[in-house]
Amino acid sequence: MGKLFSAYIPLQMVHINFFSSTPAQRTSVIKAFRGRVCQLLRHTEASDVVETAYSDHATAAERLALLLEFYGADLAHLKSQEFTSLKDLFEELPQKKQSVLKCIHRELVSLVNKPGFKHSMVHKVLWDYLKHADEQDRAEMIECVRERLVEILHTREGAHATLMCIWHGTPKDRKVIIKSFKGYVLKICAEEYGYLTLLAIFDTTDDTVLVKKAILSELLTHLDQLSTSVYGMRVLLYLLNPRSPKNFKKSFIAILAEGDVNNSKKDPKTRRMELLEAVSSKLVLFTEANADLFVRDNHRCKLLIEVISMATDDVSGILEKILELVSMGFNEKHIIADPVGHFVIKQLIINESINVENGVQFKNNFTTMLIDAVDGNAMRKWPSINRGAFVLIWTFDQLTSKRITTTFHPSRTSFFRYTKNKP
User: Cα dihedral angle (150, 151, 156, 162), rounded to 10 degrees?
Assistant: First the structure.
């Protein structure tokens, strides 16, 4: 088997064989790996072949059979149909837990500095180990792998293993992990799973000075790229308003909530405010420079709304840019008629209303600025379209009857009927 994957045979030929062979032939090749999986994963060329078989061609039962190799020789006789995960195995054979974890620990340590450590199969084993190992063994494993986590967070299993290391690691472990990310922040932000590790760092790391220097400084130099990326945008939104149900699904929040029980000492609100203050000024300047684009962009409008609502720096420049668009001549291309622009105006008014109810005071009253910026005669045209009518109603809800009647002539009965019962 070792000769099959030697450097003298082009690796591409083995890969081609997988893609061109029948299911029965692929099954035969995968069966041939049995008893040699861990050995092959330590081999540069062979590890790539095993990973291709595991991730691209093996059935669920075959993948589990390959993972059995990490659990020890005395479990090689087990059939994968008898259990579906390491958790199931421990429930079925609790007496084997310590010996299995010991075998997994030994194999993982031997792979840390080998080519096979980059593969999803190993990441799966590492994630399972970190979930089931006791506190001492887990700490030893975290110390062993912490410098190489940056290489594995591109896979789902690798990202979750990295999350476990960040949540359960010591401050020194986190420091090493964060430093290893330096120079790769932009790439991590673009990873489907990797970006989660940055959010975990924001949640748990008390040394915000290190986070600012190693991560935020790099992040803030690529705001344009991040704002156009699905996952990069989530990183920015999390810095502004972490775990907001407006921006993140419940399942997403639940994943990060698993790390709330950690050894951090700093108050979470203090830590989040320190990070927010570190990014606020750059985000305000970036958003102000692009406000006329973001207000019509279905993706980046969320950043615009959150910067205005959450930034610690003055956002009046952003609001003025939006109001310039609102005060333009009303037509079918007006910002109020735009599906995204209409949504932005609505959210700014609603957010202001929520803040008033919660007793939060802001320097800029958007609703008042909106009424001051737009001529009353021009605003009377808004109800001619559905979106304009709703914006007008949301605006009225934030004003007193006196202010409405001074803006709109009471002879306009549609407005007058609405305002006559307001205080």
Answer: -40
